[in-house]
Design goal:
- The chain is of the alpha/beta class and about 325 residues long.
- It has 10 helices and 13 strands.
- It has 2 domains: about 170 residues, Thiolase/Chalcone synthase (Peroxisomal Thiolase, Chain A, domain 1), CATH 3.40.47.10; about 140 residues, Thiolase/Chalcone synthase (Peroxisomal Thiolase, Chain A, domain 1).
- A 5-stranded mixed sheet has the order 1-7-6-4-5, with helices on both faces. The chain has a 4-stranded mixed sheet with strand order 8-13-12-11, sandwiched between helices.
- The longest helix is centred in the last third of the chain and has 22 residues.
- It is globular.
- Bound molecules: oxa(dethia)-CoA (UT7).
- Oxa(dethia)-CoA binds next to helix 2, helix 6, helix 7 and strand 12.
Amino acid sequence: MSPRSILAGCGGYLPERVVSNEELAKTVDTSDAWIQERTGIKQRYFAAKHETAAFMGTEAARIALANAGATADDVDAIILATSTPDQAFPATALRVQAALGVTKGFGFDLSAACAGFIYGLSVADGMIRCGQARGVLVIGSEVYSRILNWQDRGTCVLFGDGAGAVFLRAARSTDDDRRGVLSTHIHAQGTLGDILYVDGAVGQPDKPGHLVMHGREVFRHAVTRLAEAVEEALAANGLTHADIDWLVPHQANKRIIDAMGKKLHLPPERVVVTVDRHANTSAASVPLAMAEAWGDGRIQQGDLVLLEALGGGLTWGSALVRL
Ligand code: UT7
């Protein structure tokens, strides 16, 4: 029997600086009322200079390892999902590897925008199942404040910075069959690349690289694709809505989160919401929400947790995990 991936620990890091809607409205043509009504966002965190993607990812990873009772020696691989790496290379994951004092194994960055953490979980789970690694850190770390276009009020009010991490540990299937990553399903549709993208890259001197989004179109796809992804996860495991203890969704818009909760017939108190305080932290949003709800004791060992996310690409996916 191939090993299973147990979610052994989780951690998050948020920058020190909190920026309220009111503060943003001093420099952007917007209002607290508009932002809250359309998105549920009240504030976001913006990174200081030293709070790089590597720094924040390292802090989140340290907490995940500590919560798992693990050390740097237990880490075989680091997969770091980000759209805002500190450098084109080395990979942010390897800056984290060095900062944690991990001296073996391998690491790489993964680019799948807001679905990056779900993609990372899927890759890590596959590596553990086939015996390539026994301890994997999956991290989402983002500094979106670097790529926001402050002249575009339709996008610059939506995002924030932060990092979240989980430590996955291999366990023999016979050890505890009910726990671990039960399934992951990841998808992409490249033909929809132009509804959410960054208009630049390293090596393109005329293009500083700002986020561009056709919000309504992304909204429409998010509701449909995410609903499909969660149904797919349940069907693959022979489970129903009633089996889910917690939904930990991507935190882009409270209206999308509410729609997903309704589709799954989950009471609001079973849906983890951080978008009001974190805004959209892209690949960091799901592990940050997980870290919060696991950390404060809402999510308990044995609970069945459904994770989902959608982002630029388009990319989307779901993961079903028994803690
Ligand atoms: O993480 C990746 C996945 N991303 C998502 O899932 C995001 C999906 N999209 C959304 O969440 C929503 O589409 C938005 C929150 C981005 C926008 O909400 P909307 O209800 O679709 O608004 P809209 O873009 O259609 O704009 C409505 C109006 C426009 O004014 P008019 O043309 O109706 O006069 C905008 O100019 O709101 C205006 N507007 C604003 N007003 C005040 C747009 N942004 C702002 C703003 N403050 N920040």
